[in-house]
Design brief:
The structure is a homodimer of 308-residue chains. Chain A is an alpha+beta fold and 308 residues long.
Chain lengths: 308, 308
């Protein structure tokens, strides 16, 4: 049995012309590191859930991506994080929303999935559960980056709610995620995000929603999305890919293209997804200008990319 | 073109032996009133969204059901309410979680759907949006009922998290919901809940999750669920019914039976759903002992029921 792993670090208006060569190297390095983290699990025969968690933790710990350390600021200068994870082997799932100060939201989602009777916890209650279970917390300063501070200042000036905002013409959907198939034939998916710069009203996007931002089922596929959350929720994107495979007999690639390049485009939803099927085939599909992404299989063919 | 409307007031271990004749009359009256509220909209040519909102408001305002007034108490003696709504005509959706003191959570979900750029708002932020949009608030006393107080006291004594708990042997999934098809051929669904008695950690169930507790699409069906939320989230129940119709060519009844009587039973998920297809056919399906439910079509065939 073979293994495979794909990751993303968000999608949107990511153009070669806007990124310095130095930054490009940094992003590719960070994506590579996240692949190594998941690959280390899979190469030793570890399971898909542990692999996607390891890759997402690596991306959460990197300040370049909008998740964990490096999360964007809400309208109230807070870091409000969401995450979810699903195990395709038993359809178990865990999710968290409106989380503050938990170092790795994806590990809390995993804890909820594996050790609670619940699927989805939120805000203060989720933080209380995290403390009870001994998860790592960090002070506000840990999550702080100058880039995110500048982005909120700019968004406040323009009075705009921005999705990982850079420039007025930019739309970036800051999310990280991973999907994997292990050598035992199990598949899993995980997603994590810091949400939208200048977001108000405790808005929740698709990242913590099982079926929208994350889904995994050994009979079909595992999917992690990154995009304009409202459209991805309305399209129930991750589960739609699974249903097109299970009920329509589509291949993974056909299903992903149908959902992202046809259905989401028609609905108005910009973004993309990564997916793996139960045979280990990978799909990294997006309808935006770019998507930070990468994959590796047991051929050790580490590959990272940013642009179309 | 014909119209039709179905409602539910929760599912679970609802046995004739446990309900007095007096209570039975009260429940049937309340269900009838909720049908009348939606029917009043539909008979005048009103749209499906307004009809499901009217029926759910009627159920939220009735202290017999676990939603709005009459919501159960969380572990911290709070009423934490969730709701969602979806418009099958344009796939617009609105949802709220962890809401306090908003009189009708379903109307806030509708407001978010129709007048914000978001789909899903949560907690304090959602309440701030509700105040800004002029929705009605009520003090804690409004939501108080002696029955719910006794239920929390009993749950605290037994140290159990209970789903609309009555007796140790009881499992009730306190949720209300409505689905409708209007004379213009549009369909819609809405769901609202007070959650679980003695719930901790700000747990969220399927009720506010688009795709799990609520879904509507004019091309297929509108669905509102009531059941053990964790299993309904993992099964992406409402959207699964839609996918089985769209991708597998199943009828509404076939799809609902497949999801509730086969897939959810296999997964371990107790509960039920109400659904309407784009031709106005209705399905009211549950795998539990009972489900408070009712329907009406333009034949004015008002019908309410409780047991199997």
């Amino acid at each position: 049995m073979t293994y495979s792993l794909a990751i993303h670090g968000g999608a949107g208006t990511i153009l070669r012309s806007q990124i310095t060569q130095e930054d490009e190297v940094k992003y590719n390095h960070a994506l590579h590191d996240a692949l190594v983290a998941g690959n280390d699990v899979l190469i030793k025969g570890g399971n898909a859930v542990e692999a996607v968690a390891a890759s997402v933790v690596s991306l959460e710990n990197c300040p370049l991506f909008n998740a964990g350390k490096g999360s964007v600021f809400s309208n109230e200068w807070k870091h409000e994080m969401d995450a979810s994870i699903m195990d395709g082997n038993n359809l178990q799932a865990g999710a968290v929303s409106m989380l503050h100060n938990v170092k790795n939201p994806v590990l809390l989602a995993k804890e909820i999935m594996q050790n609670s009777e619940h699927v989805y916890l939120c805000g203060e209650g989720a933080e209380r559960y995290a403390r009870q279970q001994g998860l790592s917390f960090e002070p506000d300063e840990y999550f702080f980056t100058h880039l995110r501070k500048e982005q909120l200042e700019e968004a406040l000036r323009d009075n705009k709610i921005m999705l990982d905002h850079r420039t007025a013409k930019d739309r970036k959907f800051g999310t990280v995620g991973a999907v994997a198939r292990d050598i035992h034939g199990n598949i899993a998916a995980a997603t994590s995000t810091g949400g939208m710069t200048n977001k108000k009203f405790n808005r929740i996007g698709d990242s913590p929603i099982i079926g929208a931002g994350t889904y995994a089922n050994n009979h079909t596929c595992a999917v992690s999305c990154t995009g304009h959350g409202e459209y991805f929720i309305r399209g129930v994107v991750a589960y739609d890919v699974s249903c097109l495979m299970e009920y329509k007999g589509m291949s993974l690639m056909q299903a992903c293209e149908k959902v992202i390049l046809e259905k989401q485009v028609k609905l108005g939803g910009e973004g993309g997804l990564i997916a793996v099927d139960n045979a280990g085939n990978l799909a990294l599909i997006f309808n935006s200008e770019g998507m930070y992404r990468g994959y590796v299989t047991e051929k050790k063919d580490f590959k990272t990319d940013i642009y179309k």
